[in-house]
């Protein structure tokens, strides 16, 4: 029963992060995020996540949906702010649509799930899809450790996540998301302990000043999403 409850919470965390790093378009999505954060804040992982939850809840009460939507856009979609890469390929090859997309696609093909291309237009190694896929794998059976989830975490997510977290935390427009970065860092360390995996030594560990001089993203229209990015065969 203990493992079942732990896995249920793990799945909730993965689903939350998938939603937070997607385009937050309407108040229904916002309310779902708020409810999930409130639920998880009842049992924080440690003192750092507890403080982050307090800051997050205060931010949401003071600022609300419109400001969160603006910050979400500034960090992940705006062409006028510092570029945050969101694919595993970029963190290993400095480009999208690289080997990590191929690896992630092959891992997806091992499962009964497939990407819903109508609701999710990005690549399989996009951070939101990785989180959503891990959530689905854990939800398959809460009573067992999913071997495929281990493969996805160890070979895809683990190699990019530290630099991704650092990019969010250090972004010039990051206020709400600075605390989300703390939650994600604490959660990832817990997952590494769960899987008995060390942090990756393969990431480039770029110096921080270089992150602030990457080229800006080109603007492109974002497709509407219903956050059900992974479907069952």
Automatic annotation (TrEMBL):
Q: Which UniProt keywords apply?
A: Chaperone
Question: One Pfam family, short name please?
Answer: Nitrate_red_del
What InterPro entries does the entry give? DMSO/NO3_reduct_chaperone, TorD-like_sf, TorD/DmsD_chaperones
Q: Which Gene3D superfamilies match?
A: TorD-like
PANTHER family on file: CHAPERONE PROTEIN YCDY (PTHR34227), DIMETHYL SULFOXIDE REDUCTASE CHAPERONE-RELATED (PTHR34227:SF1)
Q: What is this protein called?
A: Formate dehydrogenase-specific chaperone
Question: What does the record give as the organism's lineage?
Answer: Bacteria, Pseudomonadati, Campylobacterota, Epsilonproteobacteria, Campylobacterales
């Amino acid at each position: 029963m203990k493992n079942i409850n732990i896995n249920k919470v793990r799945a909730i965390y993965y689903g939350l992060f998938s939603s937070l790093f997607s385009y937050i378009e309407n108040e229904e999505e916002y309310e779902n995020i708020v409810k999930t954060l409130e639920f998880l804040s009842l049992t924080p992982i440690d003192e750092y996540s507890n403080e982050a939850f307090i800051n997050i809840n205060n931010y949401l009460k003071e600022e609300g949906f419109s400001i969160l939507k603006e910050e979400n856009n500034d960090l992940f979609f705006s062409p006028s702010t510092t570029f945050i890469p969101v694919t595993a390929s970029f963190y290993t090859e400095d480009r999208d649509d690289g080997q990590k997309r191929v690896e992630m696609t092959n891992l997806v093909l091992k499962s009964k799930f497939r990407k819903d291309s109508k609701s999710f237009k990005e690549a399989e190694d996009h951070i939101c899809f990785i989180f959503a896929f891990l959530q689905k794998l854990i939800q398959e059976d809460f009573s067992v450790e999913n071997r495929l989830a281990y493969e996805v975490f160890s070979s895809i997510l683990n190699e990019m996540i530290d630099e991704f977290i650092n990019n969010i935390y250090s972004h010039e427009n990051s206020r709400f998301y600075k605390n989300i970065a703390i939650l994600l860092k604490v959660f990832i360390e817990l997952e590494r302990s769960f899987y008995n995996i060390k942090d990756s030594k393969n990431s480039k560990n770029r110096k921080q000043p270089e992150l602030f001089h990457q080229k800006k993203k080109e603007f492109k229209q974002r497709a509407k999403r219903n956050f059900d990015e992974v479907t069952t065969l």
